[in-house]
Each structure stands twice: as structure tokens, then as C-alpha cells.
Write a structure and sequence with these properties.
single chain, 292 residues, alpha/beta, 8-stranded parallel beta barrel, 12 helices, disordered N terminus
């Protein structure tokens, strides 16, 4: 299984409308780990071509600093998909995000299309899981190809397609979908990003949902407004106490190991190898944030 601990931070993954030049310019100053330059939901049909030109120019500009850039193309089977994919592949963003991926075969077809369009090896494929069919095939999708590195949850579509309701704490179907996909993605050794929170004027609700996502094990959260970036960065970052605890745990375990003991005690609790793996993961991630 690939080691995902060394991958770049993706705590905050902000959607930016591809047809809005001002928004794309503002994104250069927002402290998000990643930006999704969107050609799908946020772009009206009559602005699709303009949006495509805008996001390709944004990637070519090289002016986004540490921010990882993904272009979200329109979904497979739409009239814009092929041209979106070819244009995105040609400019070589960090990733191309494809919505509504539903099978391993589609992943293979997307990789083939990217390669045919000249996508550099550094451009990854990201896939959205947001339909019941995709959820039932989450494991095979996540493991389909090494070029697929990140799975993004489309929670709004999951609610819509299961005829559910948007409720605080998220309904049972959404929580099941999140848990199921998280297991599938971790089994494949990939990265998984939680869905969006719709109420941009409800910071308390956002904080609660971001904490929920972190507690479940997600790497970060997709966002729809710049005001959500800082809270997401906090929610998915180790605190100073977390870092200090991790260092202390590792030191205690090393001391026990030198004494030929298989387990150790730290702060009154037994620790073993699996706890040390978690502690090392925290420190690796903290270093990645410091060097971002």
C-alpha cells in the first residue's frame, strides 16, 4: 500500500468558479491548500467555453504559489467533457477532477484520454464519488489506477440521489456513504476529501461538520467560500498539544524498546506500535505544513 503520510496537505480544498476572472484572481491570495478551478456546477452552459479558457490561463500563469491546482471538468457523457479534458491535460495542472465517476473502467478510460491529450506525468486524476452506483463500486474505483490519487466526496449529490434531507450532523445515508468510501480509499492507500458545507453564514455548523470529518479520518474538506478556509485548516491540522504528545509518545516507546519491552506507558496509558505509527504520521504532517 502506498504511504499517504508524505503527501501534500489538502486540509482546505476550495472550489473557484471558472467563469469568474475576479474570483480566480482573488484565489491567489487565499490560504487554501488546494483550489478546484471549476467548469461544472458553478459555470452556466453559455459560459463553459469562456470558463475553460479562464482556468487554463490561470494554470499557465504559475501565480498560485503553494496551492495545488485541480481543474474540475464536466462529467463523462456531457457535451463539454471531451474538450474540457483535452484542454486541462494540455496545460498540465496538478490534477484533473472528474465528477460522477462510477466504475473502474471509467477510471481507465479517463487515464487513457489524459495520456492521449498529452497530460504530463505530474498531472494526477481525482474522481468524485457522488452517486449510489459509485458508492457500491467505491473500492474498485479507488484501486483502479495509480494515477488516481484523490477521491472527493460529492455529498450534495448523495443527499439528492438518495432522496434524503440536509440535516445537522448529516443523515444516516450520508454518514454511511462517507464511512464506506473512506474504508475503500484507505484500503487503496489513497487520499479522500470530505464534501462541502452549504451554509456559508453558519460558522458554528461548519466547525462541527469539519470536526466530524476529521474524527472520521478524512484528509480535508471541500469548501465553497473563502471564509471556510481558515476553519478547515485548523480542523484538519494537528494542534501544538497533538505534536507535543506525539513526540512524548515516541520518546517513551523508544525508551521501552531499549529496555526490551514491547509496550510502553505514556500519560498513564499503554502504547504500542500502532500508536507510534499515528504519532509519526502527525509529525510528518506537521513538517509538511511547516514546509508548505
Amino acid at each position: 500500500m502506498p504511504d499517504t503520510t508524505a503527501l501534500r496537505p489538502r486540509r482546505s480544498v476550495l472550489y473557484m468558479p471558472g467563469a469568474n476572472v475576479r474570483a480566480l484572481e482573488k484565489a491567489k491570495t487565499i490560504d487554501a491548500d488546494a483550489l478546484i478551478l471549476d467548469l461544472e456546477d458553478s459555470v452556466s452552459p453559455d459560459a463553459k467555453e469562456t470558463g475553460r479558457e479562464n482556468v487554463c490561463a490561470a494554470v499557465r500563469s504559475g501565480e498560485y504559489g503553494h496551492r495545488e491546482l485541480a481543474i474540475r471538468v464536466n462529467s463523462i457523457g456531457t457535451q463539454w467533457h471531451d474538450d474540457d479534458l483535452a484542454a486541462a491535460a494540455a496545460v498540465g495542472p496538478d490534477a484533473i477532477l472528474v465528477p460522477k465517476v462510477e466504475s473502474a473502467q471509467q477510471v481507465h478510460d479517463l487515464v487513457a484520454a489524459m495520456e492521449a491529450a498529452g497530460a504530463p506525468a505530474t498531472t494526477a486524476l481525482w474522481a468524485m464519488i457522488e452517486t449510489p452506483v459509485a458508492l457500491l463500486h467505491a473500492e474498485e474505483i479507488a484501486a483502479a489506477h495509480q494515477r488516481l490519487t484523490v477521491i472527493v466526496m460529492g455529498t450534495n449529490d448523495i443527499v439528492n440521489e438518495t432522496f434524503g434531507l440536509h440535516v445537522p450532523g448529516r443523515n444516516a445515508a450520508v454518514l454511511t456513504a462517507l464511512s464506506w468510501t473512506l474504508l475503500a480509499v484507505r484500503a487503496a492507500g489513497k487520499v479522500v476529501i470530505d464534501g462541502v458545507y452549504n451554509a456559508v453564514k453558519d460558522p458554528e455548523g461548519f466547525d462541527a461538520e469539519a470536526r466530524q470529518g476529521r474524527e472520521m479520518g478524512f484528509d480535508g474538506k471541500t469548501l465553497i467560500h473563502p471564509s471556510q478556509v481558515d476553519p478547515a485548516n485548523v480542523a484538519f491540522s494537528p494542534s501544538d498539544d497533538d505534536i507535543e504528545r506525539a513526540r512524548g509518545m515516541i520518546a517513551a516507546f523508544e525508551e521501552a524498546s531499549q529496555a526490551k519491552q514491547g509496550v510502553a506507558t505514556f500519560n498513564g496509558k499503554m502504547i504500542e506500535e500502532l500508536h507510534i505509527r499515528d504519532a509519526n504520521r502527525i509529525l510528518v504532517f506537521a513538517d509538511a505544513l511547516a514546509n508548505r
